[in-house]
Amino acid sequence: MHADAEIAVTATGATHVGLVRSCNQDSFLVDDELHLYIVADGMGGHAGGEIASNLCITSISQYLLDQKDLITGSQDRQHPDARISNLMANAVNHASTKIYERALEEPTLRGMGTTATAAIVVDKFAYIAHVGDSRCYLLRRGFIYQVTNDHSLVSEQVRAGILTKEEADLHHLRNVITRSVGYQEEEDVDTTSLALENGDMILMCSDGLHGKVSDKEMSLMLRDNELDAAPKLINLANERGGEDNITVVILKVNFRLPHPPAPT
Fold first, then answer.
1. Is-contact 126 196, C-beta < 8 A?
2. Is residue 161 included in any domain, yes or no?
3. Whole-angstrom distance, CA of residue 252 vs CA of residue 264
4. 151 located within any domain
5. Under a CB-based contact definition with an 8 Å cutoff, are residues 126 and 137 in contact?
6. Domain region containing 98
7. Is the pTM of this model over 0.85?
């Protein structure tokens, strides 16, 4: 890759209530100016989940917008930059505090919370912060990689060797998460950074998608359709029952060389 290549990010997002639920408690953000992308899957009563996921999106976005100078300010920044990872974690915890305080103000919302999977692209790196069981995937050269770990009861048992992945997929407690944004003032936020390559795609989704569509199917759909895969993936999850809300955010990165100066 040419050292002076610039990065261009194109992105899309879509959400669907599914075929069973009457309320969509998922929220997403595609902010092409800040290169910020978020998926949040709320929980907590009929109204609580929707409020929590919306508040999560707006709180993270505003927090990072207020810190825009730190994100965009340095031309000679060394990546990965721990300050940006810390900023992403702090943004998620800022959202957690906002949701927790809102629940204290309105007793009917007590106990509401949300997942949060957020990615920001800075220069040629993606910085990801994550809580819950929504997911972030990387598609690179036809291969798909799950970047985040699910904070769920069964996933932790799989990582500990107690359950197999096949057992986990069928387990009656597979939707029980062990971390959420807003259930308490602060949460343990996972952060990671990715050095991006030309043509990489990132897929972020709620469990309404990854609970119905396999990683391999996602990979093939992304390879064949790129950003147009979002509604197709949602349709596939609905065809398989659509018991949950379904949210998908896809971004693709391309490197381009700066134009040479015009001859004088």
1. yes
2. no
3. 36
4. no
5. no
6. 6-145+180-256
7. yes
